[in-house]
Design a protein that fits this description.
The protein is α/β, with parallel strands linked by helices. It has a single domain, classed as TIM Barrel.
């Protein structure tokens, strides 16, 4: 899957920006990361929240004010669930209505997607690649609750529906973005994995997580796309590195010391030709954003790269299999700080790519 895309320390963003206008947001993206643009989520709008944005189409979805839940006790739930699986099979078989399917992103909840496609369509030539994103299955299914306040992950039927909903919405994104004739990357955003292995998720097994990843990643691969898993904190990295994902995206600024503990897994991952997305540009602390420069971050990355090189991997291979990203999204930052994060991402990438040349 990675063969049609060369990472080569290109800059890639995570997704959210602290803005209220999608046109302004995509202009900011295209000014800083034109090589691999992405569609932008604007969390100032509640319908563009990371979970809420991908809830439409879920059987039994009930919205009461600001609260959304899955009502399995409703009179129409069984019929809706049956219809969901019928539409799922139609989508798998290519018989679904591309734009009116329950698996299609809609302009009222994902306007950034359509703003991106309009702008890419107007470019004189396609970018090197294009990126979409979606809530990861673990984060989604542990955040969404049923009518009793219980996470749907712990109901096998609802978990299966959640995974299939996300798989088809990811697949839909790949199909839509593929028409521009460049590689398509879909990141599954998994902030909840920071709690994996803790008492909060003690009853979730590695096998369950692995099965969720396998299904959503396979849906992306089946459409010819590349799949990434983004975790913005520490986690049990082997379950991510051993998945079929093409890209592992992590907070290299704050958690490299935890990531490198799994050296054997990292070595095997990179040697298989897959990509590490280094979140080397800080996003969590304003002081870090203000203090750091492109040169300081390049030096920090090179120190980390040397630890990977010490595993027996050539520097040129590490660079070829690296992307440069912010450590997380910038939706909760001030616009000034978010803009600096984008500029740092661009500048760090350019400096590292000059090493490749």
């Amino acid at each position: 899957m990675v063969k049609n895309f060369q990472a080569n320390a290109l800059p890639v963003l995570i997704g959210s920006l602290p803005m209220g206008d999608h046109e302004d947001a995509i202009e900011l993206v295209l000014n800083h990361t034109p090589e691999v643009p992405l569609w932008v989520q604007l969390p100032v709008y509640k319908e563009e929240g990371m979970i809420f944005q991908f809830l439409p189409g879920f059987p039994g979805l009930t919205i009461e004010g600001d609260k959304a839940f899955i009502n399995t006790a409703g009179e129409t739930f069984d019929d809706d669930l049956l219809k969901f699986y019928e539409e799922y099979m139609a989508d798998i078989e290519g018989k679904a209505d591309t734009y009116n399917s329950r698996f299609a992103l809609k302009a009222d909840t994902a306007k950034g997607f359509f703003t991106l496609t309009e702008h890419i369509g107007a470019l004189p030539k396609p970018p090197i690649a294009v990126k979409g994103q979606i809530a990861g299955p673990i984060t989604f299914a542990t955040a969404v609750k049923n009518q009793n306040g219980r996470a749907i992950f712990y109901d096998e039927q609802l978990r299966d529906a959640a995974v299939k909903l996300l798989a088809r919405k990811a697949s839909w994104q790949v199909r839509q973005l593929s028409r521009f004739g460049c590689p398509v990357i879909i990141f599954f955003d998994e902030p909840a994995l920071a709690g994996f292995g803790s008492s909060e998720f003690i009853s979730i097994s590695n096998e369950e997580v692995a099965a969720c990843f396998e299904e959503v990643i396979e849906a992306v691969h089946a459409e010819g796309g590349l799949a990434g898993i983004h975790v913005c904190a520490n986690t049990e990295w082997p379950v991510v590195l051993e998945s079929p994902t093409d890209i592992v995206s992590f907070d290299a600024y704050s958690f490299f010391d935890k990531f490198i503990l799994f050296a054997d897994h990292i070595k095997k991952f990179i040697e298989s030709g897959r990509i590490v997305a280094w979140g080397i540009v800080p996003t969590s602390q304003a002081d870090d954003i203000e203090r750091e420069t492109a040169d300081s971050l390049v030096n920090k990355w090179k120190d980390q790269m040397k630890e990977i090189e010490a595993l027996g991997i050539n520097k040129s291979i590490i660079l070829a299999n690296s992307l440069i990203t912010p450590s997380c999204g910038t939706g909760s930052l001030s616009l000034d700080h978010a803009t600096k994060v984008l500029k740092l991402t661009k500048d760090v990438s350019e400096k590292l790519r000059s090493d490749i040349r």
